[in-house]
Queue: 4 jobs
Job 1
Amino acid sequence: MRLPVTRHAFMSRPAFLLVACLLFATFLAASSPTSPQPADASILATPSPTSKARAALPTATIAPPPVAEDGHYSNPDLGISVDYPDNWLAQPGEEETTLTYLISPSNDPVVAVIFYSPMPTSSTIEAAAKQLRDEIVAEDTDVDYISDRAMKVKSGQEGWMSEFSSVNTDGDPHHFVLLSAAQGGRLFSVAVFGTKAQIDDERKTIRDIMASVTLTSPGLYGIPRDQAFVLAGGESNNPRAYDPATGQGNNLIFSGLVMLNPKLQVVPDLAISWNISPDGKTYTFHLRKNARFHNGRQVTAQDVIYSWERAADPALASDTVLTYLGDIVGIDARHAGESEHISGLKAINDQTLQVTIDAPKPYFLMKLTYATASIVNRENIESGPEWYRTPVGTGPYKLIRWEPLKMQLYERNADFYSRAPAIRFVVIELFKGQGIRLYENGEVDMTGVSLFDVDRVRDPGEPLHNELVEGVSMCTDKVSFDLAQPPFDDLKVREAFSLAIDRQRYLDVVQRGIGVPAHGLYPPALPGYKHGQKSPDFDPALAKQRLSESRYGSADKLPPIIFTASGFGSDTGAGLSALVDMWRTTLGVTIEIENLEPDKYIDEIYAGRHGQLFFSGWCADYPDPENFADALFHSKAQQNEGHYTNPTLDTLLEKARVERDVTKRIGMYQQAEQIIIADSPAIFLNHDLEFTLVKPYIKGYVSTPINIPIERYLSIQK
């Protein structure tokens, strides 16, 4: 598979007051005190039927949005409601964690702010509330803590009430009443502030507001929050990304005949069983009789044939179909447009499929776990060009709602053919923000950890440390040369560029020292990885010598070199900047950078529209070195975008394909790796480590070095 954060802090007290005052001034200029503006409409509103683009998207049958009422603030998604006088003004907060401002109608108003923050798991309500109280006046003088006491909010949760006063840095006195209570991993607070006289004038109203605070189980887009597995994500404007035949698919929606389980074993999926002929070339799959598409139609062998023949259709231009289905007899002819059908596929009956491959290959079943082999619904595909927005698959979840740039909502497939997922809903929050911040706020249940936050969460004293899961990934970050373009048709130039890269420095600067420098193709944990391999090493003197030995002789005689990257405008990431700087410093070479739109980057690389250098990292799709050496560097490999060819390597890889002795196979792939390293068709940079935060109530999570449909195995225990 090709590879295509900060702490939460309370708003500082001066900013807290400034925002409230500015909002109040704006509010007085734009509104009448007798006609308060209602709070923001609920996010549960469904797409407008007048919008053609949005009308086609799936929508769930869920509870209607609450009606906004004067005198009542309610946020069912967070699970908080508060009553306030009808004549007070309500203004939505500008910060995500600041829910609303309530402003009294007098000329000298009192301001109440409703907001939330993460509730520390090891803290008491008293300790958390006092910490918040202290932070509000941290920069003030003459702080006077008047009272602190426990109390219960209207819904019964334990709360803490504080009253205190202070003088700010401008010499202005302020008086505060603060109530805090916890629910759903969040500390909800109502802070009222003004002068002492203002607070005394509104004392009864403030007590009534505090007494009305109600905390309930949070919801999310009209569904119970405690029944949803929530993740942060994004979306693509390239439809090919959503098609399993051209992108990486979606294992919530789509499934195939077989899949990898958390132990990376090939196990039945749509196929309940299979037989292999004595010569290892014919596979007979028996489909589950209860396997159905999301629309209720039974899955048949003809559906498998349709899906795979569609993936091989030359009009679709799939850049993965030959990689994962190319062993099937007749697929080359279908992909070349020479046949309408794949001769190696035969439906014995509705529930039996016969697949003939070109040679006995021990890894063939593993290839069928990749998205390209997923089964799609013909009626869905032929419904129109935007079929992917209302996908009909066979997987464990159905997409029931999609609001572009906002959210995707999946519901458990009640007719799922295998063990039904324990979690009813999966929610993907689209472009909502930084994963670790959302995680700390309790807005997502799992997130990857960026390199900038790894040291922090690895610290045993960090509250998130106990929720960190570390693992390896079977990935190799690399830069590919296009050997069809000068100067990289010259081995000496390729060697010079590779020897000019200090991999450890690259890892330290770009990856913050996290990962493993790559001295070969295979990542750790992949069968065939050779521990202790030390070539090629960083050697500036030898790099210069190799360049001088090339037919170009020196850097100033090289043709213009373009590095194609994924990005916008003139933006360059740290990794690309580091590489360009090393080549300039060591070899005296100037590199021109060309950015391609990220959503279209893979398509453009596959189509050959790139410079002489480009990023082309790769992650294992199944645990076999064939997925690296053969899939990337055989001269006829679909993923060989660098036009590398070596007949000796091809012969070796072709023999390894059919070798049934495991030890011999691994030895052949290690030999293949040495040939690849010697020919330098790419610069292998590093192998990654993975860091994931998982909430304690998410059970069943297992870190795997290869992407698997993990949602099937999870449950929520709150």
Job 2
Amino acid sequence: GNYSVKLEASDNLSLTTQEVADTLELAPNRKTTLDIPLRAGSTGEGWVRISVGNDDGVAVAHETAMIVRPGVLPVTRKYQVSVPANGGSLIIDQNLLADSKMDGARVSVSVARPSAFDVPSLLMQLDRYPYGCTEQITSKALPLLYAADISNGFPGLAVDGVKDKVQSAIDRVLTNQSSAGGFSLWGGDVDHLWLTAYVTDFLTRAAEQDYRVPGEPMKQALGSLQNMLAYANNLENNDAAIAYALYVLARNRMASAGDLRYYADAQIEAFKTPIARAQLASAVALYGDQQRAERTFGAALSLARQSGRRTSRHYTYGSPLRDASAMLALAAETTPRPTGMPAMVDLVASLSRAKSSTSTQEQAWMLLAARSQSLSNREISMAIDDVPHSGAFARHVRGEQIVAEPLRITNQFSEDLQAIISTYAVPAQPLAAGGNGFTVARSYYRLDGTETSIGEVRQNERFVVVLKAVQTNDSPSRIVVTDLLPAGLEIDNPGIVKSADLEAFPWLPDTTPAHLEFRNDRFVAAFNRDAGDAREFTVAYVVRSVTPGRYVHPAATVEDMYRPELAARTATGWMTVERP
């Protein structure tokens, strides 16, 4: 019979329906296929709905959800501007995003004393970090335990959904707990002492803030720290992990006061990172030994001041900036505060200004350290669009808002202020292939092993995608390789190419990633690399061309998760999927 057809789409999608008749004739026991061109207009959640009915009362409706994301990954850029005292001003307008797409663009602005932390940008970066290993889940949630303290001194800065985000992180991170009670980066049975201490620190602090932390997993985590400490007593290789475990046990009143005094007095030089020394200092302070804590914090500061040294080992996910920030954060929690705190603030500010990008560890500990500065900005006065404002200023705004309503900031204070502006936006022109510290290449093969390209393919063809990343230095690294899929492709066989029907690829090396993700819009592989290990990483997976159309072909990327300045990417292009 004859059926009416109605097509609808969300605002960010447009359907071309001119060639679709209002009434469709369906023959008995036959089917009819409609080709309806669909175009993505802007990013975000979308939907397409088709409704079919007839005069006899038959009515069928189907709705399909469609998520639209950019074909190019957003880029974070940071700008620092001095706003002179007594009338100096700054205007933030559309020029800030002149080389970026406005769709989905976000801008973070903070104005405070130069030694202050860029709280709004740090919160924005942590919230948008795309990966979900144990460390990153923990780092994103740890500062939110103190969101009220962190944003204190920044009137109007709100952090959305804090309670839900923290509780979700607690529940997620516990899924990576092993049967022995410890934690590893991507889950599994091999526990890592430093990471176990970091997660247990987060769980301890969460319980102190009255979050729901199940008692048995918490008990197992603390027991795991005690058990691992009993075997990891070699300070030469485990000093950082031992210090952190002792600090967490001390916070739970389960550490040996004698051990703490021994390490702080007789073995302090064996602890080769500022964060480790600061954790020992904080631990002895928790047991009421303020004099020893002051001396040990001094040893931590002395080590942190030694410029040019990379004082953190890779297994602690650290850097000089992370270590100095953690030292300051721990000192700020100590009563009375160590006398070296002003010097710690200056050191963190100096290290922060020297970095163009930061890791999740650096961001998390800088936010914890920011609590120490929450009161120092209250006396600041300025005008925002000619409206008086007291205290430091912070705001998150959408790109369109900056274009429609430029922001004018006038310093009415007697000291120079520092404005830090961060943008998170898709470049108007995709970044060229290249990078620093890595190279990455992407190749496509047919199932018979012949190399090909996928600029133009037919619907339902299958291809093997081979990604080869090379690290150009021998530094230990936590590496993640990401391949964003064109919208016309989907992952066909979620697994590394090892199946029997792919014998045409004997040359593929037997690479074992630490973690794999087969998402509906990307492939992700993570690797842990120690000094001396192979520098080449090759992974492969199978895709199938699904939907006819023309699509952005995003770049494949590789990066060091804890040194984000080390990264590389392929070129961005286009691909077309034709009908068979």
Job 3
Amino acid sequence: MRFPAVLFTCTCAGFLSAAPLDVEPEDVKPGLLAEYRSLVDPAAKLARVEVKPAFTLGLSSPHPRLPPGPFEVTWTGLVLLRDPGPVAFDAFVGGDITLEIDGAIVLQGQGKSEHAKVVGKPAQRANGYYRLTLRYRSLPDVPARLQVWWQAPSFTREPLPAWRLSHLVSEYPVAAKLEERITRGKTVAGRLGCARCHASAFPSVAETPPGPSLADLKGRVTRDWLLRWLENPSQVHADARMPALFAPDRAGFVERWIVAEFLTGDVSRPEPAGSHREGMKQFQSLGCVACHFIPDIPRTQQPDLDRIALRGLGDRMNAETLTAFLANPHGRYPDGRMPRQPVTPIQARDIAAYLLLWSPSLKLDPLPAPSADEIEAVKKRLQSKNPATALMLEKRCSACHVGVGATIPADVPVKNWDDGCFGGKTLPRFTLAAKEDLQAFAKIAAGEKHPSPFAARQQQLERAGCVRCHARDTDRPSGLEFASSTLGGAYLQYIPFQKTPRLTNPHQRFTRSHLASAVREGVAGLRAERYTFRMPAFGHDAETLVLALAEADGELPAATDPPQPTPLDPTAASLVGPQLIGFGGYSCVSCHLWKGQKLAESDPGNQGTDLTRVAGRLRRDWFDAYLEDPARFHPGTPMPSIFMKGKPARLTSVLDGDALRQRDALWHYFALGKNAPSPKPPAPLPVLVPLGSVVVAQIPMHLPGGELLESLTLLNASDDLLIYDLGA
């Protein structure tokens, strides 16, 4: 149920007359410095960098280290103003808010519900960087929410862009540096499964088992490889997350032998049936390079981007099991860190062939078996007739792996954070580069004991890796776009130009139903066939991920989309719509698809989505604002401004050049979908041939039956046309 918004108007002083700060690009970094403090427990504090001041918390705590109840947060940093005219700020806020720009209050008020809106007065300022301070205080029994907006004569009201916010590197506080280390350590604790053995020491790390399923190990891994892996995983794979569980002496070898003999069996490694050449193209074109290094290119020649190297695949999987894994990654890794890509069985087979070509199995000399007396000694120590099961129970294998019994976390007390698993003297023994980060988190982890559904969902969103493929709250390209920009070659010539949709304020852009469906099931048929990136399907996790996006942007998760407006002129859509988007109008179909087809060949970096898929996908209010200035929503987009705010339409011959009526006609024309009348194709251009000359062109011709004919065409000054079928 929606409640009427409460309006609070602040009495604001105008901006001061001081000049903007003299700041060089290297002096600043993205994000504001945020300092949280509980009003229930003043000792509970938190300092960190946040990309923007926004959240929807309800009555939840913003962080597991802060107890439930009222809290306050102060953001400080810089805001970049570079738009002409006075700027006005407002905010949806449940709580108290005060926003200062260079010492002048531009927004102040209180909202007593999550629907309340606080409005400031316009203030003039020259372009440049200015100090920003935003103070927020939650109220008892009032759902906490904050979402800051701004507007000016040159642009329509919009959420305050995160890429306009930054902080001075020289002012980065020690507390924020420590928090950055603690955050990295928490990520490491989740990856290593620390809470699987030390549950009470890591109350906020509620990760699923991080290890792969051992259910099908007999058909994948040889005994000799597993023996070496169990001895020291980090020596076999530098990025291994598993610790050494066995002593490096003879007794440890015997124990490893018993476990390896129990878990492994006959392994068949036939030649992959797929095409490694096709697999290479699929691996690079689907978007796998967002998370993984390309195996046949040296790592030194690839940007890091926190990607994972695919080493040792041939020792862990054969072509059949790797193909099955690519089709259903969750069957092997229940933690969901590998999303389910929409690959066909043939594509999965080809990718498996490509990866195994560059990661073959090692040729290992067999190790001699331990004696019967050595095995008997282990049985006696364990007091078990089944030493393999007893050893796996002793080593707590089921804490991190499914497929070997119930996965029940243990609660082993921690005596010394500076030693233990990372000291190198006891077992289990981790080899870890980020040891100091993990220790920093471990020392405060027990204090993260307060329930924070908001923080838990943000952690799941981060683990899903959405920002690897999609830019969010930044004016820079995504990791996938950056990695793909360095690729190319035969059949991959369009890869460097492909872009992915941005995740900045997605609830402002997409309808709720489309966003949920896209995350749950993926998206197909929206772009041209040559667009190869594919959206994974996140299935039952989609609801949580979409909710996390809303909460981090200050959106109301339970809100509904605005109702569709009535057309200003019911006849305008079908009458003038084709003219507006056609080649004699704004030429939208020069770059965008129409009913799944390209009506013109555009630059590789300019290919747009299908215009007949607008209805049900985009929100009308976002559509109107986007047409005014696309670069505000998607920095670097080739899409031009169609209707400049406050100015007449550029196409004066349609609807009297009324921008409002033209924009309304466009929306309702697109809303007709596949039933919309199509625009006319571009008029043919006459080719004039000088007397005595011949024009020669190699032209692909589409025949009436749909067949494509590659032709060589000759035209002379007498209009004689000769067409040669090059294929024949």
Job 4
Amino acid sequence: MHAADFLQNLAMVMMVAGVVTVLFRLAKQPVVLGYILAGWLLGPQTPLPVHLIENEEIIHTLGEIGIVFLLFSLGLEFNLRKIRQIGPTVFLVAPLETGIMFFLGLQLGRIMDWETMDCVYLGAIMMISSTTIITKTLTEMRLQKEKFAEVIFGILIAEDIIAILMIAALSGVGLSGEFALGPLLSTVGKLGAFLITLLIVGLLLAPRLLDYIGKFKSEETLLIAALGLCFGVSLLAIKLEYSVALGAFIIGAVIAESREIHLIERLIGPIRIMFSAVFFTAIGLLIDPVKIWQYIGPVLLLSAAIMTGKFIFCSFGSFIGGYDQKTSLKVGAGMSQIGEFSFIIAALGMEMGVISDHVYPIAVAVSAVTSTCTPYWIRLSDRIVDMHRRFAPQLWLNYLNTYSEWIQRLGRKKKDSAVRKMIRKIIIQLFVNVALVSGIFLFGAILYRNGIEWLNWFPESMGGAGSTLFGICLLAALPVLIAFFRKLQAFGMILSELAAPQRAQRSVRVASKALIANTVLFTGLIIIVVMILLLSSAFLPPAEILTALAVMGVALALALRRFFIRIYAKAQIALKETLTKEKIKKHRHSYDSENENHQVGSKPELPFDHAAIQTILISSL
């Protein structure tokens, strides 16, 4: 690749994209469509007499970088604490409408006699609305502060999570070229362990690293460090056979917990805009108007299905979640399009060679149609509300109003007791510990598969690299396993206290509590042991070596129990501080240091007096 060719192609992209997006801004249309149009004008199907792009591979390579910056920026805006703020409604709406849209796309593909993987990818393409297009549309219409806009932004966060899971699942399923429930569940399970491990480790290290780098008061140093983390984790995701988009999004969400996030967002912004423009332009290069016209029927059918389906099911889900009729209908209207994630999913299928050539241009054309209609669809929702109120039976309207008021009153009540909250918290911690252990042994399996030479400490007669790797993974997992054991003890004792008969004789009550607590403890231990054996099956040592390593692990855990507990406790405290500390707002060209405000929540009181349980809870939580 010559430097002159690279510069020429990049110059053509930026100049044509600049002219077209100005025209789209004047026409009050989403500029994303302008980027796609610019790509079409530059591509092989251009109506211009001159072919301006000499080497399309360069633009596609830059487009891959655009995906990294696009997903990294979405991660920076994600902020894990927003999950608590947006409430449970969006996690009702998003799975409901994305699940139905996936099924709808699957069935429409079958009706059109598409191949199985084409149908699967079509369902995934129809699932996710466009964060970029919706945000730009609401901003241009000056509606971003309306109540329905806040609901939409919350649903988009939940959809982003679903999209990342879908991309990772399709990456795993696409390798086999088949869609089956077993491989999908296996992929999602491994993905969950990878995500939780990456999030926990990232939250412990990345924000502190960036906060430390921020003390140098150098924007250049901070930017390069953030970009290093971005591309490093993206590369890790590729090495683990996940999508580059997954790594970029996760590290962005982790960096969002740094106190330097406001400055990082400002520094990343111009780079993101440039490479995002290149990404959407690269999409436009693949547009073939002849092929789109050939499939104009599917384009119109899918556009109508997306606009109607998302409007109905997002509106229905929002109403069921407690929002009034007007807000719900506006939410449905605002969500009725597809965009960047659909392009990424379609591009993934093309790259892996598991979908037909016509799927990608159809997805682009459907996005163009639905995105253009979104502003008019939002404005039309007011008329739909008025018509519904005017012509619907009064009994039906009274029922809808009564339901909305009941849901809102229900949401204001504190339903959970202190014990239930404590049990829910322990269950979450147990799942996190299981995921961390899974992540450690999954990483060990990947190392073993890649044949790391320095692992050959044990001779082949004693298991070779497998025995070495299992021992290392077991040692790394010991702090988490000890924490899992302690939390399982606390969980069993709380359940035994609640479930044991209150009016029985003392001896019967003690026996019942012991039976329940021991059952919970042994069941949990069996589950974690079986899980470790399954995950490490590729590098499991011989039986005698496995027994020796297990005995050594137990002995080490007993001897260094307090040391491992301190390590886990410090990590837990550090993680809580990362997720609860206030961000320092950065001005445009200055670093202002402010005091950190740490909020310490009071522990709920247990409704029973049991010193053993209280001691375990205090030490384990």
